[in-house]
Every structure is written in C-alpha cells, then in structure tokens.
Amino acid sequence: MESETIISKQFYSSGTLSSDAQLKTPIFNINNNKTAKVHIERPTSKSGLAILIATFLLLLTGAFFVFQFQPDFDQLHLERLNSTGGIIFLAITVALFLFKGGMFAYNLYLYLKYKPIESVSDELLPTCTVIVPAYNEGKLVYETLMSLAESDFPEHKLELLAIDDGSKDDTWYWIQQAKVKLGDRVSIFQQPENKGKRHALYRGFNLGKGEIFVTVDSDSIVKKDTLRNLVSPFVVDEKCGAVAGNVQVLNNKKAILPKMLNVSFVMSFEFMRSAESMLGSVLCTPGALAAYRSTAVFACLPEWINQTFMGQPSDIGEDRAMTNMILKQGHHVLFQKNSYVLTNVPETYKGLYKMFIRWGRSNVRENLMMAKYVFKDFRKESKVGARLLYTEQFLRILMTYPFFIFMIYFIATHPLLFLSSALLGILMVSSFSVFFYAKKYSLAESFWAYSYSVFYTFGLFWIAPYSIITAHKRGWLTRG
C-alpha cells in the first residue's frame, strides 16, 4: 500500500511518474498536452519473464500440434459434414464467426474515427459534485480524496463528498484526516451501518448540488486533468447523459494478475468503449470513474435505488444499471479516453473470480433490462449501433451453454485436438491485443495479453455459465 501511495502522489501532483533505474520503480509518462498519451514501462521480474516465455512456448506448441494433427482435424470435419447435427453446428458456428468478424471490423472502424472531446474553458465547465463511497479501504481513500482535491478544476465549481459505508477498519479515520487536510473543500458522512455501495451513492446524489455527478471508487487515483476532461462532453453535447472514464490498473507491479488485467483493461476501455462512444451507446460507465448529468440521474433515481431482480433488491451492478437507465431515456453515453484513473484490482485467483462473477451476474440482469427498450423508439437518432452492441452481448449470453457443453464434449472425445486448437486460437485472437497495447504503451507489457487469454480460457471458463445460472443471487462477494 505504501508503494502505491508514493506512486499515486506523483501521479496526480506532477502528471509524470519517473523512475530511478536502481530502484526499478514504474514509469508513468503522462504529458499535459491535450493529446496526452500514457507510457507505462515496468521491469518484468524473473518469475514474470518465466511465465511470459512459458506462455509463448505453449502457444507455439499448440500451433505445431495443429499442423501435426491436420489429418485428424480433416477426419473430424468429414464426420460432422456427414451428420445432420454436425451440419447444423457448422452452420451456426460459421454464422456466429461472420457476425463476430463483422462486428470486430465495425468496431475497428469506429475506433479509428474516435477522438476524445477536448477540455472546455473554466468558464464553461459545469458545477460538479464528486461522490466517493468507501468501505474498508483504509488509507487509500485518503489518497483518492487528495488526488481529487489536486484536480485542475475551478475550486468554486467542485464539491467533494466522501461517504463511509459502515466500514469495519480505519477508513472513517482516514476520511476524517482528509477533512482535516482539506477543510471545507470536502464534506464527509458516515452511514449508520453497511448498506452497500448503491445506498452510499444514493445519499451522495441527494446531497450533491452539482450539475454533474462524478462517482469515483475509494481505491482509485485520478490525474490532475481527469475531472475537467470527464465533464467537458456535457458542455459540448447537450444530449450527453453520462461519460465513462479510462480505467487502468494501479497495483499492476505488485502481482501477476494485475499485470494481465492492465492489458485487458486497455482493450476493454480504449478499444471497445471508444467504438461504443462513437455510437453514443457506451454500455457501462465504470464504478472507478464515471460522470452523470444530474437531471438524468434524478429522472431514474427512484427506479435505480428500488431496483429488484427476481423479487430481491439489487445490491450489485449499480454502475451498469445507472448507465442502462440513462440510455433508456434517450441520452448519449460517451467515453473520454483522456480521463485517466488508476484503480486497484484483485491480486489473487479467488478475488478475481469473485469480481468476475459479480460482473457476470450484473451483465445478465442488465441485458434482460435492455431488451425491454433497445428495439423500441427510445432515441430520436439512429438506434442501429446500440442494437448491434446489444445483439452481440445477447448472443454471447445465449450461446454460453451450447458452447460450454460442446467444449466439454470435445475435451472428452478429442482432448489433444481441443487443446492444440484452443492454443492456436488464443495465439491468433490475442495477437490483436498484443499489437494494440504495444503500439500505444509498451511492447514488453503487451505480451501479458497472451498469458491472460490462456489463464482465462483454462482457469475462468466456468465464470460465464455459473454467472448465468446464479444471476438471481445477491452479494458483493469481494467485500470482507
């Protein structure tokens, strides 16, 4: 935690994190011009290097055995073509492949056209309420509030609210320390008991006076120009109802999983959300950093706080639910690539799969909700893009069990063919992520995309089917 604190202070104070070669600390090079890029270089440990080498050798071995087993693959294909079930399966597979390939090409086209909206002047910036809900975050909530206070945002237009959600550790102490340091610049509140993040945000929404609400997780650090970049789209686009920030990993030098997730986050945000933003239909504004027009929030706040699923109160997916309800109102939801936030991610397998289960359950719930309006006249402008994005997500959920069953069958009947073809597929598909990250940030770090894909394919393949069948269950899971 102490090393993260040092990093975060440099990050939000100077905008540039440098490293001493002897200390081998990370480099964050974030220029202050309007077309800033983030350059992240981290030395790879011996164990990390061993994992990368082993991953690459494994993938090459898989590709080699696909070549060696080519006669067996040909025989398998002939057997499928000689059966009705095989032909149906092949037809569905080809159709899905063409759709996914077409969507990838479309997203790539949108990404290449995307440009973040430039920051507006101080005079044009709207009043802004930043809400930081905190639960058992300890000193990191103090660092979060300090980074927000250091923002390049007119002080008289910025309201900071810190809300302790009944923490059991020293979180409230550190919130009080922030109050001592910042004085009237921050208002602090303590929930009488732990009621969940949604209720903490709800209190903040009702207390806030800003034209724009910004929500920031209490384990996240923002750059000096993050807030002004994040809220500028509301000034430029009067139909903008919400904006997603650009999330990267804070603790990615502490463990292997955060290193993998950092590459995954860059693909998820800077590629996918850039494409979604071009359609005005970003499907999820992240809890780590998001902004909402206050009128849009109040238009759906009663529905949001009282949301249920299968008769049970919804205590997860508050960010995706808010995004969904704002999209339903006909607003645009955009992404600002130049609004950076660093956030903590799980460092253990158990913490990671619990986080993914929570996300998976929320995805199922909100896709069902989105189905109720996405094919209706919910927006005056074109709705084709939003419908395509929804269809892609819906098909992914719909085909989860058929392909899961097929995978189990394939493993049971042709284990070597499955293993070699899966590894070759990972090598081919993940190469785009490697190229994308290497071009924007670091070649050395980009290879974690391969390791992450191998890890997810063989270690987390069960998350999607499990999340679907348990979508009704409550619980944050990662709160201890």
Written account of the structure:
By secondary structure, the protein is of the alpha/beta class. It has a single domain, classed as Spore Coat Polysaccharide Biosynthesis Protein SpsA, Chain A. It has 18 helices and 13 strands. It has helices spanning 2-14, 46-68, 70-81, 84-113, 140-149, 171-182, 197-207, 226-236, 256-278, 294-305, 318-328, 349-370, 384-398, 400-413, 415-440, 443-446, 448-459, 463-469; strands spanning 16-17, 27-30, 38-41, 128-134, 158-164, 186-190, 212-216, 220-222, 240-249, 289-293, 308-309, 312-313, 332-343. An eight-stranded mixed beta sheet has the order 6-5-4-7-10-9-13-8, sandwiched between helices. It has a three-stranded antiparallel beta sheet with strand order 1-2-3. A two-stranded antiparallel ribbon has the order 11-12. A hairpin with a 2-residue loop joins strand 11 and strand 12 (312-313). Helix 1 packs parallel to helix 5, helix 9 packs across helix 15 and helix 12 (349-370) crosses helix 18 (463-469). The protein is globular and about 75 Å long. Mean pLDDT is 90; it is low at 1-10 and 12-43.
